[in-house]
Specification:
This protein has about 260 residues and is an alpha/beta fold. The protein has a single domain (about 30-264), classed as Alpha/Beta hydrolase fold, catalytic domain (Rossmann fold, 3-Layer(aba) Sandwich). It has eight helices and ten strands. It is globular and about 50 Å long. It starts with a helix and ends in a 7-residue tail after the last helix.
Length: about 260
């Protein structure tokens, strides 16, 4: 009986893993090509997609551990939130996960080691580095898609993707309806370019050893001082994986999909 129970448990685990893999395959593989450069991305369409309708667009930017060119790893974190069957029914949307090459970052980042921790700074270069150039071009192509509701375009990201979230906001301040950077950081001198344009929800863990929580605290203070509709959730005792807590926030998706540029 014990053996049979163990076998059943093993089969259940295998089935769960297979089901999860099948779910992620619902994100179609695409490549954005511009000249000799390309950017892999995965795109998920609504469960009951109607080619005559318009849908919100979510652009999610992964962290450094998911860089590459396999067009797979970027789905490791975050994709399951949008694949959840209940979420797909409640919030029909087009969701895009691009993948940054493993030789670069999404945007220009400078860091130094100080007292066993890292300090980050984010140059406000007028000309973006190549991955951000491609990301900006991809977002413009998506914007032109007839099925995108251009008043409901959202961007979020974790860690390196959190850095890129702040970077793309000042580069395209009229483009988005909401943003959710997780354990990231940005250039506070650029905040005035987008602070009054859309709401922002920031997340970070208090004992993050990779990206110090001071980065998010600084951005939140600067946003609020500039009049932004910003809120900040800080997780006590949480390390760099604060995205797990953020993805589990029951109000994240209701908050996100309620944002509409037409309502402001």
């Amino acid at each position: 009986m014990i053996f049979k129970s163990s076998v059943n448990a093993f089969l259940f685990l295998v089935l769960a893993l297979v089901t999860n893999a099948q779910d992620r395959s619902l994100f179609q593989k695409k490549w954005f090509v511009r000249g000799s450069d390309s950017l892999p991305y995965r795109i998920l369409y609504p469960k009951h997609f109607d080619p005559e309708k318009k849908y919100p667009l979510v652009l999610f930017l992964h962290g450094s551990g998911s860089r590459g060119k396999d067009n797979e790893k970027q789905l490791f974190w975050g994709a399951d939130l949008f694949l959840d069957s209940s979420n797909r029914e409640k919030y029909p949307a087009i969701v895009v996960f691009p993948q940054c090459p493993n030789t670069s970052f999404w945007n220009a980042v400078m860091f130094t080691k100080w007292d066993d921790s890292l300090r980050f700074s984010f140059p406000a270069n007028k000309t973006p580095i190549k991955p951000m150039q491609l990301l900006l071009a991809l977002s413009d192509e998506l914007y032109a898609n007839k099925n995108i509701d251009t008043n409901r375009i959202y961007v979020g990201g974790m860690s390196m993707g959190g850095f890129a979230t702040y970077d793309i906001l000042w580069r395209k301040p009229h483009f988005f309806a909401a943003a959710f950077p997780i354990c990231g950081g940005g250039n506070p001198n650029q905040v005035s370019l987008y602070a009054d344009r859309f709401p922002i929800w920031i997340f970070h863990g208090t004992i993050d050893p990779i990206v110090p929580v001071a980065n998010s605290r600084l951005m939140y203070r600067t946003l609020k001082a500039a009049g932004a509709n910003a809120k900040y959730t800080e997780y006590p005792g949480v390390y760099h994986d604060s995205w797990k807590k953020a993805f589990a926030e029951p109000d994240l998706l209701p908050w996100l999909f309620s944002q509409n540029k037409n309502q402001r």
